[in-house]
Design brief:
Blueprint: H1 6-14, H2 17-27, E1 34-37, H3 39-49, E2 62-65
Antiparallel strand pairs: 1-2
Length: 75
């Protein structure tokens, strides 16, 4: 598959049962303004562009969010 647009990436993700299950699991957390990002998307694109038959293993899945009602910084 050729990846030229964001729509192409969305199609790739929607067709990937595992990725959709991850997105569904994150949705259950009910986080405000959240994003699943970094390697989760990058690895999918990498695998498709290099025609890998298996998924590149991920050590973690990054989920970020912004809660305007909680601006405290905990270090």
């Amino acid at each position: 598959m050729s990846i030229k647009t964001k729509e192409d990436i969305i199609i790739l993700i929607k067709e990937d049962e595992w990725m959709m299950s991850v997105l569904a699991a994150v949705k259950t957390l009910d986080l405000p303004d959240y994003w699943v990002c970094a390697g989760f998307v990058r690895s999918k694109i990498w695998d498709v562009l290099h025609q890998f038959t298996g998924r590149t293993p991920l050590s973690d899945i990054d989920v970020i969010y912004f809660d305007k009602n909680n601006l405290e910084c905990i270090l």
